[in-house]
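Session log. Operator J.P. requested a structure for one protein chain; no other inputs attached. Running the standard single-chain path with token output.
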Amino acid sequence: MYAVSDILSLLLLLLLGISGEGQASPVSPRPNHLDARQSTPTTGKYCNPSTSICYLEYSWGPTIPVYRVAIPDSASSGAPFQTLLQIVAPASLGWAGFSWGGGMTLNPLTVVWPNGNTGVTVSSRWATGRTQPALYPSATYRTLSASRNATHWTVETVCTGCSKWSGSGSGGLNPSGVNTFAWAVSKTAVAQPASTASSFSIHDDVGMFSESLSLGKVPKATFDAYVNGGR
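Structure written below.
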């Protein structure tokens, strides 16, 4: 026989398990969230030894892309500057998104997806509500590299217009302090892979992270040479 106190304790544990109380999570859970990830996300500094470019890096296991951001060390608050974004996504994903302002709405969104056997399409988007983000011409991208194989697809792109934005969602990045970024992914392929204006399905998983962009600062001369092809 179980004591009344034992039964009450068991009920409490079950309620906590259902509600999620007592469990810290950096991700907003969704019914169809992706699994097979490491227990907690990590952020840190990643340096590519072959290019001398260091990035702020975010990773969270094999089903979530690795996101890397770099900026020139000359960047200052209040003034626009170029941003370098690298995404390494598992081959199972149909698209991956990155939010420069930490949420879906009122900030620049970078949405990327595989296109053909080796290509990756980069689309500039902006959302004013919980609907399909519209094209955002105020942020432009130049793809530095893109590749695709049996396990991953990768893209690196430089953005002009992702560090500062205006309008009702006026804001921008702090190049020397902590910033909050967000991401979203889906396993469903987009409707028109070759078109930057393609529609795409709702995300299967979302998350956010906060970290200092100081981890991704690159000497200006090195940054400029890299993004301009002088590698």
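Operator note: Residues 1-32 have pLDDT under 50 and may be disordered.
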